[in-house]
Amino acid sequence: MPEADLLCLCRDTLSRWGKDARRTASLMIGQPDYDAYLAHSRATHPDQQPLDRTAFFRLHEARRFGAGGGFKCC
Amino acid sequence: MGKLKTGLIFGAIAIIGAISIGVLALHQGESISAVWMVTAALCVYAIAYRFYAKYLAGKVLQLDAKRPTPAVRHNDGLDYVPTPKNVLFGHHFAAIAGAGPLVGPVLAAQMGYLPGMLWILVGVVIAGAVQDMLVLFMSTRRDGRSLGDMIRTEMGPIPGIIAQIGVLMIMVIILAVLALVVVKALAESPWGTFTVAATIPIAIFMGLYTRYIRPGRVGEISVIGVVLLIGSIILGGQVAYHPVWGPAFTLSGTTLAIAMMAYGFIASVMPVWLLLAPRDYLSTFLKIGAIAALAIGILIVRPELQMPAITPFIDGSGPVFSGALFPFLFITIACGAVSGFHALIASGTTPKLIENENQIPLIGYGAMLCESFVAVMALIAACVLDPAVYFVMNSPAAVIGTDVTSAAAAVAQWGFHITPAELETLARQVGEHSILSRAGGAPTLAVGMAHILSSVIGGEAMMSFWYHFAILFEALFILTTVDAGTRVCRFMIQDLLGVAMPKMRNTQSWTGNVIATALTVGLWGYFLYAGVVDPLGGINSLWPLFGIANQMLAAIALMLGTVVLFKMKRQRFAWVAMVPAFWLLVCTLTAGFQKLFHPDIRVGFLSHAARYKGSMEAGELMAPAKSAADMQHIIFNDYVNAALTAGFLFVVIVILFYSIGACRKALKNSQPTAVEIPPANEVAHA
């Protein structure tokens, strides 16, 4: 395998890990991936205005500690 | 070829695991490396995951990779989101890992490392991980419905509402006992109290930042928050020895208990973004970080276990918790082996995020194995301490007295030797006035962690930092659980009261909010306060109550699993849920019965009450009562605890009764009757 390809592969893997780690950390505190939401919203409801990042954040913040949410283990 | 290779690899793992367990079990004498325990645990997990989880997935549950999960069917990018399995694993693990697996094993160490280790390993494989996986499976097949909902639809409305009330009672006990752990850790400790108090302004700053300065930028503010936290630990060391601030932050248990109730009330009625959410970020990241640090520390330091394999206290005479090995060891360890609370989480967000049914073993079974490993690490941290230190820290003052000389003399009677001067030196090293009677598990774990982590970074000079780091991390996530739990209870109470007064159901109404929150805080506050003033340290009577409650919830979840397997016409495999359910019922019913009627006043609530009553009639006072009113109070507490225990027994027996009924009905029916969402896409409830 040429060196450039290997380097590229490493970089891609690292960047994927980084993205996964970020996504995991934010889901741990009740925040799903905004980019995934945006992509989904654009694909399925192109006619509707998607929530912006802040509104999305606040919605999930409220939901995590709302009725039925916020369960944490002992 | 593949089969042969798997056979060879797992054969080797089985042999290594068996050797490790054998070495640990047969060991006698001075000390033994913790590496044996880590190896034994990892081998057991590997085999259980490779074979048992696979068996559950394939033969028992027949997971279907082609069947759309709720996340796929209702994908809305908001609540239902197909999530990569690694990401979801992290989320699920963070949600189930709490204080339980850290505290339970520390308390169980009084019987030696062996009984605790064996139950953590056996329990997780046959009960805990099975429960988590089953509930996740059932909820995934039912659009992410909650445990209570599933009990209602599969067993009927009466068991549904009884389970709901049971969950509420369990929540109250959990909140009280967790709050008690924090009070025990912070009482008379200005350093610890200061750092924990400092989290409040830090969190409020973070809340304002994410609300107004840089909305939603959780990453950067969490980094700032963690830096401030570490700063507060360092500053705490100065505060503790300050002539004015030192005494100001030296609070008694009762003051702390009242402060916690006030704080819990305020934190859960305030807007969540201001305090609760930012503290949640800190506690979540700190928790994961501290668990990882402990794992790395144990691997690098490879500490020696000082605790004997088995101590004489298996007969029930131990100072840390009362009651014999059976059933109380199984009650005490709670979360590390099997935790009913996971059933609430596995039927919460996780089933709405899972991408594919074939990930259920990884998320359900695998995450629980990790939780169990956390429990093993906590057990190691407790057992690397000199047993004399362990018993001095965990025995109530009523047993060992209040100064180092009497404490050293008391533990010497049990065969553990330490000089008073050594106890004073250790207290100084961790930056505390005293380490006597710091029950509740958290301080012991913190000393153990400080012992391990200071061997990696900083040496003896950093011991006090690591000790307070560990205390902070435990207190922080316990407090977050208490606040979030208070809100959850509040919504439950509003829901239950709403049956009689529909007005109460409005969660936006301030009146409903304040009444239900005050009720919640009053309920757990009552048990907290009673625990704080208890002469035996509170943990002694409250932790078993919590353990019974938690294990009963697990039994309920497993009974639901049994019913569902019968209704799926897969009763041939229902033993996977029936065996652990049966064992948990045996343990919890025996423990509950003993808590009620045991003649030893340290175990039985009613005999305790009777003894006090007898003394009162004879006109005598019994410690810690200082007046007839105190005596009345103690007797009343005993009756409340007894009533609660009886309540738990009632709930679990009723559910058992209904489960048997539901199974018999399912057997008579030739068709599957489980209320699942059909596999095809046509039924969409979106």
TrEMBL record, chain A:
<dbReference type="Pfam" id="PF04328">
    <property type="entry name" value="Sel_put"/>
</dbReference>
<dbReference type="InterPro" id="IPR007423">
    <property type="entry name" value="Sel_put"/>
</dbReference>
<protein>
    <submittedName>
        <fullName>YbdD/YjiX family protein</fullName>
    </submittedName>
</protein>
TrEMBL record, chain B:
<feature type="transmembrane region" description="Helical">
    <location>
        <begin position="362"/>
        <end position="385"/>
    </location>
</feature>
<feature type="transmembrane region" description="Helical">
    <location>
        <begin position="221"/>
        <end position="241"/>
    </location>
</feature>
<feature type="transmembrane region" description="Helical">
    <location>
        <begin position="542"/>
        <end position="566"/>
    </location>
</feature>
<keyword id="KW-0813">Transport</keyword>
<feature type="transmembrane region" description="Helical">
    <location>
        <begin position="253"/>
        <end position="277"/>
    </location>
</feature>
<feature type="transmembrane region" description="Helical">
    <location>
        <begin position="284"/>
        <end position="301"/>
    </location>
</feature>
<feature type="transmembrane region" description="Helical">
    <location>
        <begin position="93"/>
        <end position="111"/>
    </location>
</feature>
<dbReference type="InterPro" id="IPR051605">
    <property type="entry name" value="CstA"/>
</dbReference>
<feature type="transmembrane region" description="Helical">
    <location>
        <begin position="321"/>
        <end position="341"/>
    </location>
</feature>
<feature type="domain" description="CstA N-terminal">
    <location>
        <begin position="33"/>
        <end position="591"/>
    </location>
</feature>
<feature type="transmembrane region" description="Helical">
    <location>
        <begin position="117"/>
        <end position="137"/>
    </location>
</feature>
<feature type="transmembrane region" description="Helical">
    <location>
        <begin position="573"/>
        <end position="593"/>
    </location>
</feature>
<keyword id="KW-1003">Cell membrane</keyword>
<feature type="transmembrane region" description="Helical">
    <location>
        <begin position="158"/>
        <end position="183"/>
    </location>
</feature>
<protein>
    <submittedName>
        <fullName>Carbon starvation protein A</fullName>
    </submittedName>
</protein>
<feature type="transmembrane region" description="Helical">
    <location>
        <begin position="7"/>
        <end position="26"/>
    </location>
</feature>
<feature type="transmembrane region" description="Helical">
    <location>
        <begin position="189"/>
        <end position="209"/>
    </location>
</feature>
<feature type="transmembrane region" description="Helical">
    <location>
        <begin position="639"/>
        <end position="660"/>
    </location>
</feature>
<keyword id="KW-0812">Transmembrane</keyword>
<comment type="similarity">
    <text>Belongs to the peptide transporter carbon starvation (CstA) (TC 2.A.114) family.</text>
</comment>
<dbReference type="Pfam" id="PF02554">
    <property type="entry name" value="CstA"/>
</dbReference>
<keyword id="KW-1133">Transmembrane helix</keyword>
